[in-house]
Amino acid sequence: MLETLQPAKPDAILALMEAFKADPRDTKIDLGVGVYRDADGRTPVMRAVKAAEARLVERQDTKSYVGLAGDPAFSDALSALVLGDARPAGRLAMVATPGGTGAVRQGLDLILQAAPGATLWLPDPTWPNHPAIASHIGMPVRRYRYFDDATGGVDFDGMMADLRGVPAGDVVLLHGCCHNPSGADLSLPQWREVAALLGETGATPFVDIAYQGFGDGLEEDAAGLRHLIGAVPEAIVAASCSKNFGIYRERTGLLMAMAPSADRLKVTQGALAALNRLNYSFPPDHGARVVTEILSDAELRADWEGELSSIRNGMLDLRRQLAEALRTRTGSDRFGFLAAHRGMFSRLGASPEQVETMRRDHGVYMVGDSRLNIAGLNARTVPVLADAIVAAGV
Length: 394
Known about the structure:
Elements: H1 12-22, E1 29-30, H2 47-59, H3 72-83, E2 92-98, H4 99-114, E3 120-124, H5 129-136, E4 141-145, E5 147-148, E6 153-154, H6 156-163, E7 171-175, H7 188-201, E8 204-209, H8 218-231, E9 235-240, E10 252-258, H9 265-279, H10 286-296, H11 298-330, H12 337-340, E11 345-347, H13 352-362, E12 364-365, E13 371-373, H14 382-391
Parallel strand pairs: 1-12, 3-4, 3-7, 7-8, 8-9
Antiparallel strand pairs: 2-10, 5-6, 9-10, 11-13
């Protein structure tokens, strides 16, 4: 049987990681891997996470299973962080998941169960795992215009024109903030226009929010999503704690499905619990307990928010440094969009050949579509990257 298996398609980012490891140059820069790193190249454990874990070690007296949906306290705490006052009373079904990826997968499985003929509309570009998961489960995918390579911003006119053609019953995936891979986000007025349009067409929004707090702030990053929730009859939201709590390996996520009415809540919640049972039975719990401990304790929460703010401001400062370094070297502001982007990523607008030139000649590693991880930079490497960009003719 197994001899009939075909080789899996190589993962571009994992291949990039291996190439970086094999490069002997001391000056090499890794801008490909999608994790936050500080100026020393570490992905640190946040102070509040350490403190919460210490408390749990002292207090926790069992490692038995939690319910199929996970700990309700976690669902309540994280949904409050993400949705705030927009949480719909009596209409929100929720399950804990193995990270944001697990939430996306469960959300797509829910759609497949509820509307087998639905098409998933994805922004162009989007996180590569979105179309990969959809393809794996047999869900049709179409694209809508999103990023404008010429301006480095959102092609909002093109986006709206494409979304007007999405039929009722189809699903439109939106990035909640810090768009991956482009870094270009919708403004709040644009979110309002998208919400109004989806309300008119009857398409269902699916919002993937994986970087809340990495853009402009916890409240600011969720403002568009919160408006959307109040403007449509039903929605699906996948949330991740990997980045803003720095607990990547704990695989901590939440899937929220807003039912169209209170009458449909029980059925929707049951469907989500059944999907958990079929895919992994009970969700991971350690990270969820850590997040719940932080969000429910005023002292821990204040420390977490303070450290998260420092991380966010550090990335914003690196963006400004890079934009200024390129302005100095080119005598133009054509890379000013880098300072306007938010989150860990930006898409530079370089060709695959230019990306390869930067890798070969300067030891600068980024994904072939020129997505770079701003968090992979520091004050020393910003000018190195700027020189490489200019030398490659980007």
